[in-house]
Amino acid sequence: MTDLDDVREWVASARAVVALTGAGMSTASGIPDFRGPQGIWTRSPEAQRLSSIDEYVADAEVRRRSWAGRRDHPAWHAEPNAGHRALVDLEHGGRLLAIATQNIDGLHQRAGNEQVLELHGSIRESICLSCGDRRPMGETLARLDAGESDPPCLLCGGIVKSATISFGQPLDRAVLAAATYAASRCDLLLAVGSSLSVHPAAGLCDVAVSHGARLVVVNDAPTPYDGIAAVRLDGRIEDVLPAVVGVGSDLTP
Ligand SMILES: [Zn+2]
């Protein structure tokens, strides 16, 4: 029995699976990750500064650059990959309790998953930091195309940003609570494509394991949770997930 065979069996016999997904999930869809060796933040600390809420509120130039980044974000043209589709199959099979994702690209929903908890928010909506007005991002980006470089809230004139969680912003409490509850109820947690270095998202692994679930890490680099994982699978997520969910062909060497 290889590790892959073990995991395939665990998935097949699981009653309730939760998937915790991170940037590695979307790299095969052409969306670069942030913390990997080729990650945006690794190569450009400036990009990380752009993700701080304090800088965003204080500096109009940061906002203008952020808006340009949103307009050009690869998420608008990205398509779900075979890894996303494997999780759709798992949900259709009735055994996927939830996906708790650190990704903001909306690709799980595009693939067809319905039980998606976006821990770090979504780039597909904009939100006013003052009055909370939310709208589809397309509506706000249209104002950019029409010439506004830092579009203020149409209702109150407040500062608008994407409905994503920046550094210095708390997670949405209801979303985190739902993810924590799901992690406490699952018997298998698949942590996929996450460095498991960002909390509270990574802490879902602790929640699951402390409630008796088995943890499987699918990531191409070691994580702080490998020690309490039943196994860590290396390899390309778009190959590994279909293989362990039991759809598609076997993993090619
Ligand atoms: Zn407003």
Main β-sheet: number of strands, strand sense, barrel status?
A: 6 strands, parallel
Poorly predicted regions are 248-253
Average pLDDT figure: 92
CATH topology heading of the largest domain: Rossmann fold
Shape: elongated
Structural class: alpha/beta
Total discrete domains:
2
**What ligands are attached or bound here?**
zinc ion
**CATH A-level architecture of the largest domain:** 3-Layer(aba) Sandwich
Give helix and strand order, one letter per element, not per position. Answer: HEHHHHHHEHEEEHEHEHEEH
Q: Got a strand count?
A: 9
Strand order of the largest sheet: 3-2-1-7-8-9
CATH class of the largest domain: Alpha Beta
Rg from C-alpha positions? 19 Å
Percent helix among the residues?
25-40%
Distance between the termini: 16 Å
The CATH homologous superfamily of the largest domain corresponds to TPP-binding domain
Give a nutshell description of this structure:
It contains 12 helices and 9 strands.
